[in-house]
Amino acid sequence: MRHHHLVQTKEKKGIIFDLDGVLVFTDQYHYLAWKQLADELGVYFDEKINNRLRGVSRMDSLEIILERYQGEPLNQVQKSELAEKKNEIYRNMLQQMRPANVSAEVRSCLKELRRRGFRLAIGSSSKNAKLILEKVDLLGAFQAISDGTNINQSKPSPEVFLKAAEFLRLEPEECYVVEDAKVGIDAAKAGGMIGIGIGDAATYEKADMKVNSFSEILSVI
Ligand code: BG6
Ligand code: MG
């Protein structure tokens, strides 16, 4: 008998969603808050640099911002203070968030995915994920939440998604990941999941699937 090298593709039972830039456009608030901090530090910052912050933890994001910093070297205490300052600006912006900030398209699509039997989870690097989900009334839409409070390594490490799969009681191979960050697609693939790119990641060559709108997810899975 001939030996075939079959790729085992497991039936998909779960979908893990990144939060910022996928379900809600808090990526704009992140940008504005970092911009404010960068201006105070006299550091150049633009949308292109901002794209490198997608999916990256708060402290790692600060390091990227500081690549162009020309002042006296900063110690860890000063860096923590800067990150805290940005987070305060950001959290003040989050106070404006309302259920209306989640599109009808996103809500109905999540509902349809549940109807099709998928288990849904959040896989976000943010420590503010639960606050955001609460503000926009999405907490009840997910069976599991894996976020910046339960991980040690930021994307592209697959940790946040592996935890999400575990919380859903699924194997990584049984999960799709929906991401707007290139590092998020890298993280999904490193974890053995299928990476669906949206937004900034919709043009990423490493994405297994690419969608131009949220509802397009329904036709690619
Ligand atoms: C990710 C964002 O979701 O969360 C990043 O894409 C952000 O830009 C990261 O830095 C951490 O967010 P927070 O809310 O913990 O500062
Ligand atoms: Mg994102």
From TrEMBL:
The gene is pgmB. It comes from the Bacteria. Its cofactor is Mg(2+). NCBIfam families: bPGM, HAD-SF-IA-v3, PGMB-YQAB-SF. This is Beta-phosphoglucomutase. The keyword Coiled coil does not apply. It is an enzyme of class 5 (isomerase). It holds the Pfam family Hydrolase. CDD domains: HAD_BPGM. One of its GO terms (molecular function) is beta-phosphoglucomutase activity.
